# Entry
Amino acid sequence: MRKCETEDRRRQTADGTSNIEHPTSNAQRRHTHSLGWPGGFLLAILLFLSSSASAARIQEIVVEQRGMGRSDKAYVLAHVRAEAGREFNGALAAQDVRRLLETGQFSAADVRVEELGGGELRVIYAVQPKLRLLGRPRIKGVEAFRQSKVRKWLAMDDGDLVDDQAAGVAVRAVIQEYRKKQYATATGSWAFEVVDKSRGLVRLTFTFVEGPRSYVNAIRVEGNGEVSHADLREALKRPSPLNPWRWFVRKKYDRYELNEIEANVRRLYMNQGFMDVDVAVTVDEDADEPGETAVVTVREGERYHFGSVRLEGVTLFPEARLQALLVVREGAVVSLDAIEATADRLDLFYGDRGYLNAGARPVLLPDRERLTVDVTFRVREGELVKIRNIVIRGNTRTRDKVIRRELLVYPGETYNQSQVQRSERRLSNLGFFETVRVLPEPTADKAQRDLVFNVAEKRTGQFMVGAGFSSVDNLIGFMELSQGNFDLLGWPYFTGGGQKLRLRAQVGSTQTDYELSFTEPWFMNRRLSLGFDVYRRERDYSEYDLETTGVAIRLGKALPFASRINLQYELESTKVTDVSDTNTYYYLDSYDFETDTGIPYTFASEEDGVKSALSLSLTQDTRDNPFVPTRGSRLTLRYTVAGGPLGFDYDFYNTGLQTTTFIPLWFGHVLNLRTRFEFIEPFGDTDEVPLAERLFLGGGRTLRGFRYRDVGPKVIRPVEGSDVYYDRPYGGSSLFMANIEYTIPIIKGIRVGFFYDTGNVWSERFKVDLDDLASSTGLGLRLDVPGFPIHIDRAWALKMDDDFTDDDNWVIWIGYDY
# Structure
């Protein structure tokens, strides 16, 4: 047996070789700013230059090239702020170097100054252009994967700009994939071959050594007395015992995960007061075959409690204010999480009040006789700074104002760490950027900082084409084109304005939808969203066909507490055509089966009218994810008025309330509770709610286990000479529905669910009878495919709302629940 190394081996990088050298002379190193240099040395140079050369003026700016290839002097000067005739500023020079590197054109960049006498300086920007690939990279030594897959991971192609850093990143990406497949000893290297030195053209060859495949498929814990195996499950990265997937597939651990497991177990114990715990992970070093067993050996030691808790270095604020922030309490069981949470809260306290570089360092003093740990938080209060400028970098498509309007900090304000972090999250949540990083940059004034937001753009457009099957619509084909960062006036690319555009067409056996949707989230540069929808929908029901064509204009505003209010005006033309059954039916709730009499009803009349409606809705949404939530809730209250002063053919009002709550349980299990109330009533010259506006239940997105739209009021027709009746749903005026669903994750993107549905529709207005509800139960599969989620349910009807309701056991549908 051998003990695994406890150092974090994931920090190890792949070995690489290069046959290109880039020497730098001693003269070039003098008075140089370079981001690759150690931060302390760079700061010292900056201070020296800023102090000694602060009064010196720039007489000349020179661009110097190193290495191979060509660099454009005008391009370099366009990215620096230094100008001839102005005073030299070391801090701005360092920013110039960073800006040159951020262009992606240079492997290295630095700046130095030469004194010319008389207070004049020559500023020299030295740049090393990146090399350009001639042809696709060559790959050697790969057998475990297809070369096409490795090329995808390398993400390099003919004509790309490369250097040693880019090649190293590419190799690490491939090695990471090898480790996922349990090739723990795989290594990679690269070599450049110069083709044209003057143009900087090279060929690149990657060489990989795969090594043997090995993994650990079992972990055993020894020595744990105070912490149970169940408590250790997550630290050991074991799948949930309730996860059916583990019944068929055994989890495999690569050797690098063992270091993480060792750290997890140690931290778990230290969060429960075992400060002297010793954890070691060993495996059999003689086994050549895959499928080894790892042994986690634990020596727990004694449990410690907190002794005294003190603060040191607090001078700017009353100590009592900071004492209130402490999570650590005297006498409580020692916990690393509590210590770190306290330090973070102290850091944030100072950061929110403008004190940059503030921090709290916990110092622990254990007493092994009393089994206590005294904690002292040594506070560094930092310096009070204000924001001078806010700089946006890296936005190649997104307009500056789209970014700035999301920020909660402004030039001239005192620095506020919480607002900076919230601004960073808001930019990330836009979905426009791969990464968002915030960096306070020094200025000539120590009491001011430039706040720099570095963003990396990502694709925001999407084009999807697909086909599927639904138990209601049968075959479905769809096409969708969307742009999440649209710019209506941004010719010729129409991106970067932060607007939303969506074009969608869906064609099925029983329905056809076309939709154009546009949203401007900052109308008139205010936090008002303005949008419109243009749509056409065709539905083929068994009794009739329904065609709707309309346009809607939306105005919305965000409110506090994750709430939003929306106002919408809709103008919609409705046609009911191809009525298939013109016989006389009778309302079921009025029918006398002994005399075969009742109040008559007919589908014979075809409707053709225009609805003019105004809707007001209030929504509160605290879900953690709009597509596959695991916690939080969404509540929507809506009121709609059609006709009346708005004119046209229909007069009615509609009131609705929908709630959904997601409760996280254990092992990723989630309990989902949904309710829906809706009421509709005509007024004025309208005696009956139009057929297209009536309420129905039954089917995949409402009550599973029942035929589509079959729960609720019906009309029936007797078959002459028999006791058989035809029945048709005709919709109601009051609706109640509730749903409980329990989901269990299997693997990423796949869940199973168990549900119970209940509800009904009534023809009377404002009626909800909880003793008259249909209900069903069942189980299903959730395939969380991004953009194309699939739900498959098997349902059993438990109680029918009447004798004429039909069941439908299988439900298949595509789309998210909103």
Q: What stands out?
A: The chain is about 15% helix and 45% strand. Residues 1-54 have pLDDT under 50 and may be disordered. The two ends are 55 Å apart (CA to CA).
